[in-house]
């Protein structure tokens, strides 16, 4: 009888809901960052100063919305997608600035940018590359909106129009593209992985801001088992053994094409993995951590080492060897990837570790963010700010991993040769000194960080700076305290109506039994 009762009481909640903010940035990321900045620690402080001194993070930033966006010139329309990616970068940066500092001028400015676009944009148009804009700027835009989810003036006045834009413009495009409804997709492997991955990322992000479980499931299921290149098993085409060690590495779908686009795939894996992680779904671990295997392959090759290559064809292009074009490509994503696998999961990721070191040297110690490290579309494919948002030191991971902290020496990643040097003194090298490895030409780069002339001192609203740094340990989806993947997977299958019906049925049955028992 008592067993029955406790069974009934401990049943999981019936209604699915999303965690907010729950895309690229969680509340625990924000409180960790606040603590680090308050203590004047690097790289957080350096990164924060870079962020707050950008024109793209200034509350006086003025948006330039248009009704139709074109990524490239199309018929008599000129390319104007830079208007969107600049404004989205500003909305995200200002939202982040508000989250960290509590300065509502920043939240209002971010909210105004989103309002301007949500009430002006009607279509993303042009050739197939409109899907790149929908995917890349879509997930960024949704992430900017998600940051403001607990800013009431935004929720009351702007969020409904953003949701409408998501439902009218973005989500239908993600469905159309991932369902291969364009004539050019008659071969479902036609388009390179980044074209689909960005649409998966944006569908997930749009699902969260619209609270639409159907869209979320569509995107996550596509990533797991889709038939195109945006499904992880097709985006990482082959699992091969590393020469010498036998460690498994993942050859990328774009490895034979060039390294700049392969780097974009790594960046999008980071987005997809992080967005899912913050909703309690571990795509980073999916299929034997296939994302990690892909990162390790990429990093090993791009650091100047050989990699095995399995001939690739999709029926349109064929590659027989890994491409050295744009080898060493740098994109701001390695803090996220490194901190997830090495710091949170305690996994071995030696090439990723070295690649993070390499990219941090390039960025001068703190990973760049939207608008801080150059111009051109490639610099706006991701939001960056990894050193600010994802960097953890040992004190930050002890709490989420009580069992691991008891025996740190069992950690396979503790080998000194691959551990990143976290000393603040190492974070003072020259910014942007080298352009040897950027995927996009730096010759035409405008350095916005340098343009900004008046460094501002950010005032912290004391109420938002909290020493209570692990709010994630309280939430129902706080998987950080449960590192064991098999435990993570014991979650209620919220999306399946059949289970809900079954649930109701069992519940009623148990109640009737109880009643009969009591009446007896
Ligand atoms: C969720 O998205 C799907 C697919 O776009 C749509 O058919 C459905 O109406 C949406 N649900 C809600 C509640 O908006
Ligand atoms: C994992 O990848 C292998 C190929 O490397 C594939 O055969 C298998 O179906 C994949 N499993 C899942 C669950 O995706
Ligand atoms: C990268 O590694 C080198 C050599 O170990 C070290 O001197 C440098 O400080 C590291 N850079 C960062 C940003 O940790
Ligand atoms: C918020 O930021 C704006 C612009 O940087 C600044 O003028 C204002 O003083 C700040 N407000 C507070 C309360 O710190
Ligand atoms: C996770 O937990 C299960 C059940 O307790 C156990 O069998 C498994 O070995 C654990 N896995 C890891 C990686 O600790």
Automatic annotation (TrEMBL):
GO terms for molecular function: lyase activity. Residues 75-303 form the Alginate lyase domain. The keyword Lyase applies. One of its GO terms (cellular component) is periplasmic space. SUPFAM superfamilies: Chondroitin AC/alginate lyase. Keywords: Lyase, Membrane, Signal, Transmembrane, Transmembrane helix. The keyword Transmembrane applies. It holds the Pfam family Alginate_lyase. Residues 1-17 form the signal peptide. The chain crosses the membrane at residues 501-519. This is Pc20g14330 protein. It comes from Penicillium rubens (strain ATCC 28089 / DSM 1075 / NRRL 1951 / Wisconsin 54-1255).
């Amino acid at each position: 009888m008592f067993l029955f009762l406790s069974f009934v009481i401990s049943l999981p909640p019936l209604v699915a809901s999303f965690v907010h903010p729950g895309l690229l940035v969680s509340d625990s990321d924000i409180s960790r960052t606040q603590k680090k900045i308050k203590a004047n620690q690097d790289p957080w402080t350096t990164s924060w100063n870079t962020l707050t001194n950008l024109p793209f993070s200034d509350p006086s930033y003025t948006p330039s919305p248009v009704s139709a966006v074109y990524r490239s010139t199309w018929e008599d329309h000129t390319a104007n997608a830079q208007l969107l990616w600049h404004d989205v970068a500003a909305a995200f940066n200002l939202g982040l600035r508000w989250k960290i500092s509590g300065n509502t001028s920043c939240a209002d400015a971010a909210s105004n940018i989103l309002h301007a676009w949500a009430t002006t944009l009607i279509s993303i148009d042009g050739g197939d590359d409109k899907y790149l804009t929908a995917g890349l700027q879509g997930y960024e835009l949704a992430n900017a909106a998600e940051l403001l989810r607990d800013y009431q003036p935004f929720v009351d006045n702007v969020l409904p129009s953003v949701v409408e834009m998501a439902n009218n413009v973005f989500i239908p495009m993600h469905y159309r593209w991932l369902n291969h409804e364009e004539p050019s997709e008659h071969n479902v492997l036609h388009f390179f992985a980044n074209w689909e991955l960005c649409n998966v990322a944006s569908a997930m992000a749009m699902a969260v801001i619209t609270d639409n479980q159907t869209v979320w499931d569509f995107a996550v299921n596509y990533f797991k088992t889709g038939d195109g290149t945006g499904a992880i098993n097709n985006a990482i085409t082959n699992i091969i053994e590393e020469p010498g060690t036998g460690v498994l590495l993942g050859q990328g779908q774009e490895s034979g094409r060039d390294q700049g686009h392969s780097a974009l795939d790594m960046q999008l894996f980071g987005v997809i993995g992080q967005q899912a992680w913050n909703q309690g779904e571990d795509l980073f671990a999916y299929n034997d951590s296939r994302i990690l295997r892909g990162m390790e392959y990429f990093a090993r090759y791009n650091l100047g080492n050989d990699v095995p290559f399995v001939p690739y064809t999709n029926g349109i292009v064929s590659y027989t060897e890994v491409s050295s074009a744009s080898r060493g490509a740098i994109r701001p994503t390695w803090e996220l990837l490194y901190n997830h696998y090495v710091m949170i999961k305690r996994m071995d990721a030696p090439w990723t570790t070295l690649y993070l070191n390499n990219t941090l040297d390039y960025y001068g110690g703190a990973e760049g963010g939207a608008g801080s490290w150059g111009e051109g579309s490639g610099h706006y494919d991701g939001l960056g700010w990894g050193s600010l948002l994802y960097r953890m030191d040992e004190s930050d991971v002890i709490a989420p991993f009580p069992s691991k902290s008891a025996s740190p020496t069992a950690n396979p990643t503790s080998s000194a040769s691959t551990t990143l040097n976290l000393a603040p003194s190492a974070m003072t090298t020259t910014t942007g000194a080298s352009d040897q490895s950027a995927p996009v030409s730096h010759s035409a780069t405008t350095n916005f960080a340098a343009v900004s002339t008046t460094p501002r001192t950010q005032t912290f609203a004391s109420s938002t700076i909290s020493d209570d740094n692990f709010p994630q340990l309280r939430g129902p989806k706080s998987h950080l305290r449960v590192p064991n993947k098999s435990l993570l997977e014991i979650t209620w299958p919220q999306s399946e109506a059949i289970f809900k019906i079954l649930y109701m049925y069992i519940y009623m049955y148990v109640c009737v039994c109880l009643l009969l028992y009591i009446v007896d």
